[in-house]
Amino acid sequence: MSRYFTEEHEWIDVEGDTATVGITDYAQEQLGDIVFVEVPDVGTMVDKGKDAAVVESVKAASDVYAPISGEVKESNAALEEDPALVNTSPEEDGWFFKLTIGDKSQLEGLMDAKAYAAFVDGL
Amino acid sequence: MLSVSVQGEALRYSRQRGRGENVFAGIAVSFGNCDLSEELTDTHPDDLPDKMVLPLDGWHRALGARMVEFAGYQMPIQYDGIVAEHEWTRRSASLFDVSHMGQLVLSGDNVAAELEKLLPSAIAALRPGRMRYSLLLNVEGGILDDLMVTCAGDGHYFLVVNGAMKWDDIAHLREHLPDEVTLQLGDDRALLALQGPQAAAALEAVVPGVSALVFMQHGLFDWGNYRLGISRSGYTGEDGYEISVREEDVAALADALCADERVKPAGLGARDSLRLEAGLPLYGHDLDTSTDPVSAGLQFALSKARRETGGWMGYDAIARILAEGAPTQRIGLALDGRLPAREGALVFAGDTQVGRVTSGGFSPTLGYPIAMAYVAAEYAADGTKLQIEVRGKRLDAAAVPMPFVPHNYYRGDAQ
User: Fold this and answer.
1) Which of A9, A35, A62 sits opposite B340 (nearest CB)?
2) CATH class of B327-400
3) CA-derived radius of gyration, chain A
4) CB–CB of B222/B230 below 8 Å?
5) At the topology level of CATH, where does A2-103 sit?
6) What is the ipTM for the molecules in this complex?
7) DSSP 3-state of B104
8) Which of B172, B230, B306, B353 is the most buried (most CB within 10 A)?
């Protein structure tokens, strides 16, 4: 399994044709206390770089973009009961949705963990 | 995603200052001994500094605050987190830097009578050391700003106005007050707010005597060699104080207050969620020139006697609204579920759009989302079932009385 990162602070785990998407620890730290997560319905087609989910913190609503295009296969039901999972476990239990990868070439240009860490250091 | 978040903050928290046509600059005067009217020259808004730095800027950054632009200043939005700071304020005491607000001093002959021409409140009836919430209104009865006015005695009145509006307010006041009234902007003063149930005990330990003040009372207190202007007031719904202090002393005072384990610093984020729970409107969001005091539910700021006598700017328009009833009303809404509705969300009764949200968020104290909205008067009664549209979804909500969380003001032992 490989993990990629975007400059918009999403992470994406790729396993075969399936990708799991969430937001990074840096992102949750910036957003603060998360009170609601709106994940896409199963069957939704999401487009790379377009809105796919919404995170509501105490202070504001923020869009989460799809790192790649694909069809949503599953969304994280645990976030409905406990949106703070995104704060406590952003890169594991607080994942947002899984999708079927439409075009693997879209993974090119995403960052690996090392490149993302350097990117965040530069912010 | 981060860029969106920062944009959201900017939308929510930053307001352009100097929107009026006449903006005054060159106001580097001391707090009590200089006639500001001599110093003022008309200046284009572009001549004002791009980014004004508040006296505690470095203090906030050293404590790890996240800074955002607000009212033209870099200000702390949070330190440890908005919810933690919010809950600490309700439980203990928090220190807020509100130095962006405009601290004005008016003095001269007949100041009270002149102010009464611009404010709908009974200013002349204010006794020294007492303060009142009031409004600057335009001729149409629209709200130019909301403010606190304090009678300091000896013909001096203090006004504390919104940071984003202070330049416009100064222009408005200067335009309509006679030259005999001196108006000074205390821009060499910082303003701190210490808020929460432990605020009185914590401040008393640093500035003895302040616990004798009651809600909406003001006094001068010595702190070392310096004199502080302290009022028992605030914007959180909790007991607490607002403290005017020379900018060169403010860091030492903030350190002295935060040395008390009951006190922690809090940012604008918690200030906003606290005032929302307290049902207190925020200028530029819940109040503006398209709203009037009656629609806004601020009739208490219209002194009873002065509703009869008139003689204040906006009176004719407000008298008409009072007689006919306001077509819209500011109400509180409690939402089902956990998804907050933000400013701008439309309010529906069935298929009919009946209003708009002006402030909204998740209430940390209540554990569900709350909002303020202006709705058509027939939908304003407590208990009315309404819906709010958020990203194409209709959220169920009910009109509820404000404050959402009870106020905890100290009105004295005989309260």
Assistant:
1) A35
2) mainly beta
3) 13
4) no
5) OB fold (Dihydrolipoamide Acetyltransferase, E2P) (2.40.50)
6) 0.84
7) strand
8) B230
